[in-house]
Fold this protein.
Amino acid sequence: MPQILMEETGKTSVAGRLESMQNTANGDCNDLRTKSAELRRRVFAFLNSDLPTDHLRSVQDQVRISVGVVEDALDRYSLDELSISYNGGKDCLVLLILFLAALASKPNRAPAKIQSVYIVSRFPFMEIDTFVNESSEAYALDLNRYTKPMKISFGEYLEEKPNVKAIFVGTRRTDPHGANLTFFDPTDHGWPDFMRIHPVIDWHYAEIWTFIRHLQIPYCPLYDLGYTSLGGTLDTHPNPALRSKIESSQENSMVFRPAYELVEDREERLGRDR
């Protein structure tokens, strides 16, 4: 397999960036209430900014809609009835940030940690597992891991967490099986019974990355290697649309531009075998 090289160097480690996010001007963010309040401050500073481009303003609109969906869910369900499906990918990362920002509007309801479920790929990337571990700690997730197929894993999770009635999912319209979803959808027949909540369903690929980069949210380092949609090591490759024209100094090596340079939604999964 050809060696993959980063086009950019000198990046701060993800762990270091996540650690820096846990600090505010007033000191360390040692509890979920403080962390969510800081994220709300940053998100709403973005929303209240007079931004110069139509694209940035479209991201603002998406954030307002998504925060509204999360706040609706918080009104419908208790926190004991809510969970987040989190795998360290860009979409569920944006979802997590918006959830925490919305949660800060209800400080008296903030638990010690957020219930969450991680369905691990059969052949996981080490980088993904490392980022999931680090970000779960940074964002105060009570993360339950499962390695079986998705339907079985969700069933086992609900058996262990019988109070959970609804799960936030980072699915977008262009994902497989995402075309006809709404903000709130019960699971399909034959699946474990819970409400799926899709706050970022209508976001475009480029909007996801604009939000992450504008708010300087740390993300999985595989995205800097040209990966645009993350699965397992056997079915996920750098996106060929991001192959750089820069010549590599190493024999049999390819250089890929970072994921945030991709623009078209339809090209997002070109690096996936399925």
